[in-house]
Amino acid sequence: MPFDFTGRRVVVAGGSRGIGRAIALSFADAGADVSICARGAAALDEARTAIAVHGHRVHTATCDLADADSIARYVPAAAAALGGIDVLINNASGFGMSDDEAGWAACLSVDVMAMVRTSRAALPWLQQAGGGGGASIVHISSISALRPSVRSAPYAAAKAAMNSYTGSQAAMLCRQGIRVNAIAPGSVEFPGGLWEQRRSDNPKLYQRTLASIPFGRMGTPDEIAEVALFLASPHARWITGQVLTVDGGQLLGA
């Protein structure tokens, strides 16, 4: 299925590595102008270089997505650099795993409130682009939201809140031509990511998780990026308020 995002303006909140980076690169490859943000300047610079190969407008900025003021600065700057916003991708996570104050604070501030704040900040430009359902928001959730979690209760709960808000937000914005959907990836492995780390520091967990996936392997960032492009494209123009699981059958093996 070909995707053509020529002239479209895409903002990826949390786009310097892993799934976010793959999404940003895929949109650029499809012709879009892209802005990404993250906390680390070095990873942003590397991602900017990779995106710029496609020859479209690229904007990058450091942004602490746990901080409301930082988001309030980043989103208008991205819109100014790109000339507007057609697509917003909320990809960042605080990865709060421990069931304590720190774990809950990390997930609530990034997975939940950054999603809310970036959406609110981008809304004026999404409204301008919304005619005919041309504007789209895609949240990156997780299959952790779909079942109880002993190992990462705050993360699972935050992603469940994201799924719930996806439906509510879609209902609020659909009459403005703005579609809202979410992707719930299964276990995705990439350099420097959680599952690459678990392969070495917790091999039992890694092998147990791998064994739970009927396809017999971890997912890749590109496999999530392709679904993000579909959901933001005219091919999905009749889809809103949905959470699409992309997990190689992992939930089937749970």
User: Helix amount, in percent?
Assistant: 40-55%
Spatial shape: globular
Residue-averaged pLDDT: 94
> Are there runs of 5+ residues with pLDDT below 50, and where?
none
Spatial order of the strands in the main sheet?
A: 3-2-1-4-5-6-7
Number of discrete helical segments? 8
- In the CATH hierarchy, the third-tier topology is known as Rossmann fold
Task: Characterize the quaternary organization of these chains.
Answer: single chain
Taking the alpha carbons of the first and last residues, their distance comes to 31 Å
- Sheet with the most strands, sense and barrel status: 7 strands, parallel
User: If you compute it from the alpha carbons, what radius of gyration comes out, rounded to the nearest whole angstrom?
Assistant: 17 Å
H-E string: EHEHEHEHEHEHHHE
Walkthrough of the structure:
By secondary structure, the chain is of the alpha/beta class. It has a single domain (9-188, 220-246), classed as NAD(P)-binding Rossmann-like Domain (Rossmann fold, 3-Layer(aba) Sandwich), CATH 3.40.50.720. It contains eight helices and seven strands, in the order βαβαβαβαβαβαααβ. It has helices at residues 18-29, 41-52, 68-82, 101-129, 153-173, 194-201, 203-211, 221-232, and strands spanning 9-13, 33-38, 58-62, 87-90, 135-140, 178-185, 243-246. The protein has a seven-stranded parallel beta sheet with strand order 3-2-1-4-5-6-7, with helices on both faces. Helix 2 links the parallel strand 2 (33-38) and strand 3 (58-62). Helix 1 (18-29) packs parallel to helix 2 (41-52). It is globular and about 50 Å long. The chain starts with 8 loop residues before the first strand and ends in an 8-residue tail after the last strand. The model has no long low-confidence stretch (mean pLDDT 94).
